Structure formats: C-alpha cells, structure tokens
Structure prediction request, 473 residues.
Amino acid sequence: MTVTLTTAGPLPSVQDAENTYDVTVVGAGVVGAAIARELARHRLRTALIDAADDIGNGTSKANTAILHTGFDAVPGSLEARLVREGQELLAAYAGETGIPVERVGALLVAWDEEQLAALPGLRAKAGRNGYHASRIIGADELRRREPHLGPGALGALEVPDESVICPWTTPLAFATQAVRAGVHLHLNCRVRDVGSDAGDHLLTTTRGPLRTRYLVNAAGLYADEIDRLLGHDVFTVTPRRGQLVVFDKLARGLVSHILLPVPGPAGKGVLVAPTVFGNVLLGPTAEDLDDRTATGSTAGGLRLLREKGRRIVPALLDEEVTAVYAGLRAATGQEDYRIQEYPARRYVAVGGIRSTGLTASMAIARHVRGLLADTGLDAGEPGPLPPLTMPNLGEAFPRPYRSAELIAGDPAYGTLVCHCEQVTLGEIRDALRATIPPHSLDGLRRRTRARGGRCQGFYCGAAVRALFEEARP
Ligand SMILES: Cc1cc2nc3c(=O)[nH]c(=O)nc-3n(C[C@H](O)[C@H](O)[C@H](O)COP(=O)(O)OP(=O)(O)OC[C@H]3O[C@@H](n4cnc5c(N)ncnc54)[C@H](O)[C@@H]3O)c2cc1C
Prediction:
C-alpha cells in the first residue's frame, strides 16, 4: 500500500503529463471525503485537496451528529432522496468499519395545541418521504419514556430510526479508505483560481499549480466562490450559524431520545440530544451571517439556548457544561442541495449541503460519481476497497481501557492519559501513527477524545501535547 499524503511543499509538477489527475475533489469535508472514497473504487488518478491541515476541519467537525431518516425533508427534493439513501448506506458502513452509531430514536414534542395538531401532518409528510415507522404517542407514554421533560408536553411524534453517530470518525474513515486505495491527499492546499489549458482544469493553489481532467467542487461554505471561478453565478452561500452547548456526561441519564421541537416557520428549532460520546447536546441556533469564519459562540446565543433548554428538560440546566461550539451551515436560499453537473466543463458543483450532509454524504458521493459519468468520465468497472476498521470513540461500545485482552497484549492500552474521557496511551500512539495523522491537538482530540472531557485538557493537556510533539517529524 503506497500512501500519498502531503501537507507542505509544491504539488507534483504539472509539466510532467503523468501528474495530471483524472479527477480532483476540492474540499475534504465529509462530502468531499465520501466522494473521494467512491472514486477510489475505480482505476482513476484522483486527488482530494483541502485548504485546512486536516480532514473534516470545516462544517463537518461542528454539527449535531444526527443520522437522519429524512422524515421531515421536502418531499420530492434531491435532498430528501439522498438523505434517505445516505442514512441506509452510512448505517451499514458504520457497522462495517466501527463508526459508533446509536439508534436512540427521536421524539418531536408538542408543547401546545397547535403543535399537537401539526403532528398528523408531519407523520403524513414522513410517509411521503418513504418513512412509515413514525407514530403519534400521547402525553402519558411520552412522560413514561422521557420522565425529565418539562411540564406541559402534550404528545409527540416518535421517529424510532433517528440515530446519533460520530461526526469525526465518519469523514476520517472515508478519507482513510480513499487514501489507502490510492487517492492522493493534499492538505494545506487552498484553491485560489481555476483556469483551463488544453481541455484540462489548471488550478492555482497555495502550493502551486495542479492539473486535472475533471473537477468536483465540494468546498462547503466556499463552494459558491469556486463555482464563480468557473464562470457561474448560480448560488451564494449564506453561513447559518448553529451554536451548541455540550453538557457533562452526568447529564446523560436525563435524556433517552433525540428531543426535537415541532418545526415552525423559523426552521427546525432547538433540540436536546445524546451524543455517542455520552454527553448531552443542546442546540443549535440558526443565525444568518455574512462572515464565513464566525464560528464563535455568543452570550446571546447561549442565553437563547438556555431558555429553550429549560423548557425542554429543566434539570439539564443544573448540569455542568463541558464545552460550547458553533458550526456554519452552507445555506443558499433554496430548500435543497445545489448539485449540478456541467459536461462541457467536465465539472460537478456540490453546493448547498446545508444541514444534512453528514447523513447524506455517501449517497451524495454515489450521485456525483453518476454525474461524472454523465459529464464523460469513463471510470471503468469498480473494484473492492480495502477493508477498514476505525478506532471506537463511542461510549456504548468496547473501549480499549476496558479490554483485559488488549491490555495484556499491550500495556499501553491500560495506561490512561486523559482520565475524563478514559483515553489511553495506546490510542493516542495509534492515532499519531495512523494513515492520516493529526496535525494539531484538536485533530488528535477528534481522533481519540483526548482533552475533550470535563476538564477540557486542564489535567492531561501537557501530557497529550508532549506525546503529540514527540511524534511530529
Ligand atoms: C450546527 C449544525 C448542525 C448540523 N447537524 C447535522 C446533523 O445532525 N446531521 C447531518 O447529517 N448534518 C448536520 N449538519 C450538516 C453537516 O454538518 C454539513 O452538511 C456537512 O458537514 C457539510 O460537509 P461539506 O463537506 O459539504 O462541507 P465542509 O465540512 O465545510 O467541507 C468543505 C471543505 O472545503 C474546504 N475548502 C473550502 N474552500 C476551499 C478552497 N478554496 N480550497 C481548498 N479547500 C477548500 C474547507 O477547508 C472544508 O474542509 C449540521 C451542520 C451544522 C452547522
């Protein structure tokens, strides 16, 4: 297995014809990484490039981590289809590769008569989206199943297949499998311009030129800018910020399901949900901004979340907060994705992947592979991908510190470094030696959970940093 992963220095010279890529995917978020993995099945020379120093470092690292059923999508939309297909594909893939998923189910809680009256319509909509397992439950059953709900809940729509998934392992799994199958990964590589030369795309990047026959634009919040570089003016991304609060693991017992609000004109609203790491999330807000880098939390946003959270699960607000974060959805003013192929340009734009891209990623990837074929790419027959097992970060699944067998074989799995999250020396060492190693302490946290617990690295920070520095070339 030859792995090509570069993070600095010039890209392979475009003067040399053999360095021309068949396909280049711009953006190594969950969507671009899934597309690269899909292309890796074929005998193509494929590149996956990203401006950041890691996989999934944009919107993909900061979402609510729900594997949606698509019950509430706009019926007939491309998003509805790709979320439905993507959920099945990703659930199966997670099972194969060890990405933690918990099928906790969702309850859309009605807090007033108007919301209660809306539940049959939502159930019918779920049916139009091909989802038939939802059912309406009354106040008594709701309270039995969620005893910590605030007063006044009148009933709910149950959606038993809504699940929570690890948002960090998913893009990393896609990219790892792609790279092991021969895709070249170039990080710290921002596309600044796109020109054409003899029918090929000639990209100007911060690491020099790159030549490619086909181009896929999966640049998330910047997909409109890349699209404009190709001469289009079809959509504009408006970053829609979602702020979230992460509550300590001691709060986990307060919530059994994903507790969703009944959607209103202001959108999907604020939810309370368990995470696969054993915490409880409260959020997200929905704020349309101009700044595509505004991933900070605000006092106003957190105040709003606390008000909403107090209504949903009052006792949650007495629990300790472990962290706050915010992510930016790539909204484009259309209730659907903006995926478009341009055969004359050998180009596919994958824009507007707003609030469901984690769920839909694998289906988007298949769809894009089909669109590339429509633009003339002869990919040949697909072959198998190398099997992959990802390290488990999920609280509900076996962790190394609990495995006597693993520890007997290698005592590093019995040596705790991060005590809050019970992360061992063995896991940190493995992450630092992985096919796609982290290039920052945050990257290491997303691979191991080290420094992600209630002390936020106060106790283990120095030890984790020392291990990270030691492993750096
Ligand atoms: C608050 C919130 C909650 C969400 N909840 C859920 C959920 O519960 N379930 C779900 O399925 N989805 C959810 N989503 C949506 C999901 O996170 C996104 O749809 C998904 O992460 C989008 O992935 P992406 O790969 O398109 O974009 P990104 O992850 O942003 O990746 C785009 C990449 O392109 C790179 N890039 C940009 N410009 C350039 C350039 N010029 N050159 C090179 N690289 C470039 C960036 O560095 C970035 O890494 C949520 C989103 C938010 C914000």
